[in-house]
User: What shape does this take?
Amino acid sequence: MAGYNGNGFDPAKLTAAQTAPPSFQDINGTRFTNNHVTTDPGDHGGTAGCTSTLGQSGAMAAESTACTWMTTTTFGGITYLPKPDLQQMVFGTGPETLGPIMRDIRAQVEHRR
Assistant: This one.
């Protein structure tokens, strides 16, 4: 998790990134698929979205998801990364799971003045 206070953040740029179509990239034989979705930013407002990345190399695959929020004065996010020594695929870590966790964490760490 990371978060920043300041000014000059542009929530429209986050919205543009989170409404982009899925993207695909091949790096040294590993195919990465990125899927972007918008999500509810929670009670503090602004915009929010999640990106799930699936890395596939042969029969091996791993998924990670990052969810971020942005207002004109705050920017933050959380990322789920599977343990590298995990011996099984972990499911249920996508935006539908991480989005509510992001909102809960945001509510705990972001305070209005």
